[in-house]
Amino acid sequence: MTDTTSLLAAVNQPKAVEQQIAEFIASHGDPRAAAPASANTPGALELVIRGSRVLTEEGEAPREIGIAGGRISAIETLGTGLQAPDVVTLADDEVLMPGVIDAHVHVNEPGRTDWEGFWTATRAAAAGGVTTIIDMPLNSIPSTVTVPALDYKRLVATGQTFVDVGFWGGAVPGNQEQLRALHERGVFGFKCFLLHSGVDEFPPLTPDALQDYLETLAGFDGLMIVHAEDAATIDGAVAPHGNRYADFLSSRPREAENLAIAAVAERARRTGARTHILHLSSSDALSTLRSAKADGVDITAETCPHYLTLTAEDVPNGGTAYKCCPPIREAENRELLWEALADGTIDYIASDHSPSTVELKDLEHGDFGAAWGGIASVQLALPAIWTEARRRGIELATVSEWMTARPAERIGLRNKGRIALGNDADLAVFAPDDEFVVDATQLQHKNPVSAYDGKRLSGVVRTTFVRGAVVDNEHPTGRLLERGED
Predict the structure, then answer these.
(1) What is the pTM of this model?
(2) Same domain, 26 and 125
(3) Deepest of 126, 136, 164, 272, by most Cβ within 10 A of its Cβ?
(4) DSSP of 41-54
């Protein structure tokens, strides 16, 4: 039997890697057959949840939710008296909301499991009310750029997921012919970079190559998601070094995002392909997105909790826990991102959970040039956003829409994202008025590093249900998802 160690040792020899992956899959079986089957056969109610505050499609209201076969089978006015073997009655301070869908999570397994893995990432997700994550194709070894690599990742994930997990494929030089096969195998779309990704095994596309790949994706309605920063602009900036955050911020100027997003929008316009901008941080690019959308270009965008809740002015020198790319920008930039969420220019929020080891974050020296860029926040995304949103008078129902329904609609999760009849019973019991102070050592992701360490946040997730079952942190029952499945 081929083991993981020998496979990873051959990572720089593509033919050897593919051969070893094939041997691993052959010895372990079809990863889709190995995944736990969904019950999803509604019959008599198995669970009823009663609450005075339930976020349904009609808004917040007192409701009883009946669940059977992992799906929502009944929605009635509180007091109707739905019956089931198990009944949960929420406390007066609790809200039942759809489980969060985090469409941007770097799990890093296989290959960099000292950074993160499916067991820890999905347990952290569940602790934060997240019921579905979509795993990024890079930072794992091998990257998810071929069908064998996807199958290998699915096998590794099997039996390790506390929430449901889907997968993005990768778009890198040389794998254009792999895209349709990956699409048919169930990936939700394809990620590419327009500059160095940070790991050599996932090289970038040029803008012209991006257009070629978009033409391919347009042929089968595939979705391209883009890390949009212009390589030449960043190459021309002063490289980051030392512990001054201002110097790091200057090394990733807004212009890099602005130019790259304009290039993506133009190529989406030419090809008609579906495109999505990842982790938008530059408010200067919003006008480009507004113009493209007004012209009917099929382009969407996400932003992240750290861009909406943190500011450059608050990042201490040496605070490499805050390093991410694109960077956290100034307070006035943050205000414009909130406005763009409100008017629909930015479509949804995703965490960009991008963890690493403590050593790679270089916390001891605080060198922004040496430290790995990424913020681990899948567990904290909901309370972080809610803390800032409630300060601005934004309702929880609106926050839920940004973090559940909208990502579900864009990536094609047809039975998730809303408390609605027939949908998966993916739910979070949320206490919006509770507060807590973040202790990075108590978070569920693998390494105790967090940009939110020591911060007071509002909103505590008390219970998470995945397809009607309470997540218990010991018995993983999450499913591996494929695009287009019911």
Answers:
(1) 0.94
(2) no
(3) 126
(4) ---S--EEEEEEEE
